[in-house]
Amino acid sequence: MSTEPATGGDATAQIDVTESAAEQALSLIEDEGLDTDISGLRLFVQQGGCAGLSYGMRFDDEPDEDDTIYEHHGLRVFVDPASMKYIEGSVLDFESGLQAEGFHVENPNVVSECGCGESFRT
């Protein structure tokens, strides 16, 4: 298992999390009754959507052995090696507006997205 501090490591391999996303995720983790010192948000890529790939997120009790772990604003983010090649350099944000509210991944590796923005291609 490897760990990267919020400000360290290779910038292209970094996954950043905005303060608003971290606060929102930590609140949800606590609502689930999970320990925020051990548990975290798993960010992953899966096959699906009209553009070929889509993001997935879930809360995990603990990281897997081969995960990279990032810590931002008290939130632990777990990323598996297969997903890392698609999302390295990304920023996880939480957006709130008139149309929608939720987590959003700003991914510099995306070359195209579907019309609804739910899936992407690198």
From TrEMBL:
InterPro entries: ATAP, ATAP_core_dom, FeS_cluster_insertion_CS, HesB-like_dom_sf. This is HesB/IscA family protein. PANTHER family: IRON-SULFUR CLUSTER ASSEMBLY 2 HOMOLOG, MITOCHONDRIAL. The lineage of its organism: Archaea, Methanobacteriati, Methanobacteriota, Stenosarchaea group, Halobacteria. PROSITE patterns: HESB. Coiled coil: none annotated. Gene3D superfamilies: HesB-like domain (2.60.300.12). It comes from the Archaea. Residues 14-118 form the Core domain. NCBIfam families: iron-sulfur cluster assembly accessory protein. It comes from Halovivax cerinus.
